[in-house]
Amino acid sequence: MHFTSERRLDDGVLEREFTLGEIPGILWTPGSASAPVPLILLGHPGGLPKMYPRLAARARHTVAQGYAAATIELPGGGDRPRLADVEAARADLRRALQAGEPVDDGIVDRLVLPLVDRAVPEWQATLDALLALPGIDGPVGFAGGVIAIGVRLAVVEPRIAAAALFAGSFVPRSMFEEARQVTIPLLVLLQWDDEGNDRQLALDLFDAFGSKEKTLHANMGGHTGIPAFEGDDGNRFFGRHLK
Q1: What's the farthest any 2 CA atoms get from each other in the chain?
Q2: What are phi and psi of 125, to 5 degrees?
Q3: Fewer C-beta neighbours within 10 Å, C or N terminus of the chain?
Q4: If we measure between CA atoms, which residue out of 6, 143, 1 comes closest to residue 71?
Q5: CATH for 2-81+116-242?
Q6: CA distance to 22, 36, 61, 62, 233, per residue, from 65 (Å)
Q7: What is the dihedral of CA 75, 142, 111, 19, to 10 degrees?
Q8: How far, rounded to the nearest angstrom, does the alpha carbon of residue 46 sit from its chain's CA centroid?
Q9: Where are the domains of the chain?
Q10: pTM for this one?
C-alpha cells in the first residue's frame, strides 16, 4: 500500500489516498485515538471521482463514531481499465430499462458476476494492508453496494463481522445459494421506488440470507433518496457488533 496524498479535513479527520498495486482507494481515520479503532469498508457502485462527495460524507459520519473507513475503486471503474464484457452488459441493461422491458437474467450475470469475481479478492487484499497499519484493528464491517459483492465477501471473508447492505443493484439468481450461507448480522436498506432495481428480487434475496440476525429497512423514494437517519441507525447497528 502506497499513500499518494494526505490532508486533514475541517473536522479533524485524516484523509489519505492510496494505491494498492493498480487499485486506487481512500482511507479516513480519526484525528486522534487512544487505541486502535475498528474498520468499516465502504462499498459503492464504481467511479470514485463521481462518488467522492457521498463517500466522504459517509466516511466522516462513520469516523465521528470512532471507526476508520476505507474504500477502493471497482474493477473497470473510474480511471481503471474498462472491462469489455461488463461494459457490453451494462449497455444491454440500459437499453432494456429504457425500453421498459424485463431485465434478462443473462444480462445480470454478465454484468455482475465478473465484477464480483474480480472485486472480492481486491477487497481482501486491501483488508490485509489496512489491518497491518497502526491504529486500525478488527472487527471489520462492510457498508454499501454493489450488494452482490457484499454477499460474496460475507461468505468468504471471516474478518467481516457485520454488514449494512444497500439493496439497490441487481443480483444474479445463482448467488442466492451464497446468500443462504451468510451468517453474520445484516442490516439491509431498500428504496421502495428505486427505478433501476427489481424490488421483488431484493425482497427474495433478504429472505434467502441465512443470518439469524437480519433487519430490513424499506423507505419510500428513489435510488439516491435514502433518508439521512439511516446513517444513525447504521452506526447503532455497527456499534452492537464491532465494539
Answers
A1: 56
A2: -65, -40
A3: C
A4: 143
A5: 3.40.50.1820
A6: 31, 13, 7, 5, 12
A7: 0
A8: 10
A9: 2-81+116-242
A10: 0.94
